[in-house]
## 1
Amino acid sequence: MTETQILNYALNQFAGIDAAAFELSAPYWQRKTYGKGEFYNEYKNVCKYLGFILDGVFRTYYIDDESAEEKNVFFFSKNQVVVAYKSFVTQTPCSYYTESMTESTILYIHINHLTELYGKSHHWERFGRLVAETAFNLAMNRAEEFMFRTPEQRYLELIQNHPDIFNNVPLYHIASYLGIQAPSLSRIRKRMVGK
Amino acid sequence: MTETQILNYALNQFAGIDAAAFELSAPYWQRKTYGKGEFYNEYKNVCKYLGFILDGVFRTYYIDDESAEEKNVFFFSKNQVVVAYKSFVTQTPCSYYTESMTESTILYIHINHLTELYGKSHHWERFGRLVAETAFNLAMNRAEEFMFRTPEQRYLELIQNHPDIFNNVPLYHIASYLGIQAPSLSRIRKRMVGK
DNA sequence: CTATATTCTTAACCCAAGTTAAGATCGTCA
DNA sequence: TGACGATCTTAACTTGGGTTAAGAATATAG
């Protein structure tokens, strides 16, 4: 399967984009590869592209003014959309960095082209709405994790629900994602051995 | 100003709904009042209505299985939309309770009518998108509060940004919203006296 | 204006995460 | 293989929230 076919298939799964609707978009998608540590989008930049990950893992993180620590907010991996959603839809500067954690390949489309597609086909409008709902779900799930669960519960749920991330990311990045320091994660892991 | 005019004005401010577009919706809006403690929507119910608050304050809360405690997730007040967003857009059962904390009055519209309006006017499509973005911002802000701020910082920001809520809600509800117990909020307040 | 319920604060004790620094383990590549 | 850097764990101590229960302050109603 070619990369374009993979994209076509994924968009069909995600939003029912059919062959004709996909054809409309075909001229607009571009391909890009990232080395480990390269940025998809940086703090204070406006996010102008929506990406589809063919391979690799990205993380978006915040830098805390006071502690100067990086705090991981989201991970994005294979066959997912990667975008700084708020910055993208409002075309305002981003509060985060989004960095490739591995060698990665994406296909991406410019916001102007996407907006153009919204006008041309209801399939693409539907796509836009579904991206919005996905972004909402990501943010709400994250809020719920922190409001309702302990760090230990968050750790267990990450292993359950996102083994792909757990298995491909160093523990200190996991700790940051869980909202705790590396030594605390070590203690949690130690505590759990007895269970 | 009549209640309908207030709604018209608010929708115009929020999403540029003009007189003609508002006319389309006029037959669909209904009025409802709530006593203190009455529910806008309950756990396991599908949220079928989107409300606009003319007066009053609502809270949506989660009941933790283990501790059986209520955890406040959002407050909604005058001139805001009240809705259980995820339940509303997916028409699936809600995880939360949304309760009126005061005597309240809302105007509300059924999802089927709203969907109908989406098809009739780009103004209403725009409204749908803006509600989605508002819901995303609410959820993302909440996630950021918990990921990046201490309880004390969250308390200060609530006073700064939402004095209307702070001044009209008992402290034990504020504590729950901040993700801490009432005695902890008391300690924070005490600590801060010296500043 | 008192009685009552609600809300808020305080105290004492417990426990988990933060902090810092040291050392163990793992990977990788010359 | 051996040496370096990266990652992970551990220890000792500090800090702040959780828990429980008591009591103080505030509202509300009779």
## 2
Amino acid sequence: MGNRFIEKLRGFADFDNSELRALERVTAHPKAYGARKDLIREGDPPGPVLVVLEGWAFRYKVLPSGTRQIMAFLMPGDACDLHIGMLAEMDHSIQTVTRASVATIGRTAMDEMLASHPRIATAMYIAQLVDEGTLRAWIVSLGRRSSIERVAHLILELFLRAVRIGLSDGSTMELPLPQAVLADALGMTSVHINRILQELRRSGAIELSRGMLHIKDPAALTYISGFDANYLHKRLK
Amino acid sequence: MGNRFIEKLRGFADFDNSELRALERVTAHPKAYGARKDLIREGDPPGPVLVVLEGWAFRYKVLPSGTRQIMAFLMPGDACDLHIGMLAEMDHSIQTVTRASVATIGRTAMDEMLASHPRIATAMYIAQLVDEGTLRAWIVSLGRRSSIERVAHLILELFLRAVRIGLSDGSTMELPLPQAVLADALGMTSVHINRILQELRRSGAIELSRGMLHIKDPAALTYISGFDANYLHKRLK
DNA sequence: CGGTAGATTGACCAAGCTCAACTCACGTGG
DNA sequence: CCACGTGAGTTGAGCTTGGTCAATCTACCG
């Protein structure tokens, strides 16, 4: 019954049984991907909508110089490309971090579902607005926060998202992101990320090893990051 | 008769007369704002959709430390908040740069228009996707480009947008952004922006003084910035 | 037991920031 | 018509954050 995508959308709208069935139908046949596989590459013509049901992925772009910038992390329940189908081609790539289970929703199936179930359309719309807020918060971090603030901020963001989708017990979560990936998300080098993580550990705010994150002192982490949860829109209409 | 907003949307869809009339009706009574006036403040409950018909504005957020990060520039024809109405409150502010003429579209008028004119909905949707691509490009710049690349990239982006909406003759445009505003958009200080602009002028790529920008050597500027026009989606389906 | 990917460390370097002064264009009141 | 005020642009000197390069360590795996 259900999956993380459906659970997430249920946080944005009350669905009746026919809507739940429609959502289950379109996500019934996920495909398994290995770790570090590109789901979509920049320049591809837009295909079906992808929905990550299990595992982690990220949107990224590589520059001519070969450096990479990650623009968003996709956690279980997140959709890749609700609407990119309207554009001529992808302007970035998407790659898995871990092994992942990804559902594929064809464009016509998606259009039909949205047309016949407006509440689903609304919920997906809200999900996208939240994603956009996250993009803007990322810009703020990259532009105006120091590296320790950036790292703390990202950790908090991911943690709050994990809590919201039930992937955390409230103080611990799996964080399967190598330091090089964190670096490419935060516009830093992995060397520097490493030093900052040590600083955060020393400060007693977090524990992090072998892919397990433990928020030891949420208040301290929040303080360090200057975090403002508003952009995640916890309070929805 | 139209206005810059309608002109822009016409680039994304072919409208019939009734659609054009609908668009004209909702933008028929713009309001005039002075320079440096907040149109919307963070925390406000979402109001009507705002459409900038003339003048420049930007989205921004100020941090606890008092620094400011600008996340997007709004040029004539750009809409502020197509859908933010679904969320509980604004997660950023919007301020004019120059004097501006801004149309206000009430939520119900907007909903009715979108419902009865699907091509308008599609066009506005595409406009939003392009904006999102611009957000992502901004992230790439802030994360992985050097300061001169960032400045060159922003100038090119604004220039191409100006060309597209007919605000440039192909080599010259008004660029009414003080260096401090450029700095807050690019995550730099105005001192450093100043030095970089001098470097760009010295290199012969641009001329910029008193709010007038002249692209003297587009190829050089493109080369410096590592610009890839793909994200602006010049080729639309 | 070697092999590999990721994490860690140290020494050095440089892009970009801070602070503070100064200039320039422009608008205002006398 | 000119002195003055103001906001933006410009410059210089010194410093800090975070990058570079290269070596080392560690966990895990076939």
## 3
Amino acid sequence: MARDLLGKVLVYDDPHGRRAARLVEVEAYHGPRDPASHAHRGPTPRAAVMFGAPGHAYVYLSHGVWPCMNVVAHLPGVPGAVLLRGAEPVVGLGGDPRRLAGPGLLARAFGLRTADTGADLVRSPLHLRDAPAVAARDVARGPRIGIAPSVTSERAWRLWIRGSPGVSRR
DNA sequence: CGAATGATCCGA
DNA sequence: CGGATCATTCGA
């Protein structure tokens, strides 16, 4: 579930060192029943990873410039993923949370490429570290960003940690 | 508000 | 194979 990702720490170890950030904003995409999901049109080469095992990365390129990272997460047989939209720096990412406020900024700060698609987020250099659950009163939710209102109006699938400076600004 | 910038998908 | 689309960002 998307809200379980809030508060978890995304870690990327590469030859340059470790980068880590605490996730403070995510959006859920629900697969074939969700027209906004890249999995909506079936297992195309790009979206195929979302039809596989949960806990893997799906990184796509937005507008030719911005890598955006998702965590494949779904119930058996129902493709879906969670877009990472905002985070707070923990290690190796500087001190300004606004540099991680937005899916493109976040994935770029980690140096992610579309080739990172498929990474096992439990065992690979790119992984998620568990963290205590965020209290319900600290979690806010609203409509997803950049999606036609007709699609998303009744689906408040964007979740964020109230008051965090790592939440994307609008 | 519009440009940047390229992978992806669909229709022909 | 060509054109439209895009889960975005930044600067004028």
